[in-house]
Design brief:
The chain is α+β, with helices and mostly antiparallel strands. It has four helices and nine strands. The longest helix is centred in the middle third of the chain and has 13 residues.
């Protein structure tokens, strides 16, 4: 019987913070590619646990809350069939910290920025546009506002 290799699964967070003039999204750049904090799931780790861990490891986001619950959005398959699941997290953190990865001896990303949804749409690759649109609709739509107000 042939062995079916499972496709790689990743998980991450679309980090948001509220400012006096609207929402900001944290995007991270490695070389020329922009993304949100994300990484491969470890054995036995659920997607939300992976997302939380990656946000801590890649952007030092230790205060994330998930006022939108466990709502998530998957990417279409990319890079050898990998699929990434993103959750919507909220932080009060204003600065951008790129911690040094013990495995690499340097940060995993070269730059991080808090940006408006419009700028994020210009920076992020096509595979993340549906995730960004989902996040924006959740935050600015009826359900997102109700969930955000309850925090």
């Amino acid at each position: 019987m042939p062995v079916v290799k499972e496709k790689p699964r990743a998980a991450g967070v679309v980090p948001l913070r509220r400012t006096g003039d609207g929402w900001r999204v944290l995007v991270l750049r490695a070389y020329r590619s922009w993304d949100f904090p994300k990484g491969l799931r470890e054995p036995g780790e659920d997607a939300l646990a992976t997302a939380r861990r990656e946000a801590r490891e890649e952007a030092d986001l230790n205060d994330l809350t998930f006022p939108w619950g466990d709502a998530s959005c998957d990417t279409a398959p990319y890079a050898r069939g990998k699929v990434a699941t993103y959750f919507l997290g909220r932080t009060e953190r204003e600065d951008v910290v790129l911690p040094v990865s013990p495995a690499l001896g340097r940060p995993e990303h070269h730059e991080g920025r808090w940006v408006r949804f419009e700028e994020a749409a210009r920076l992020l690759p096509p595979r993340l546009q549906p995730v960004l649109a989902w996040a924006r609709a959740l935050v600015e739509g009826g359900d997102g506002q109700a969930a955000e107000r309850s925090t």
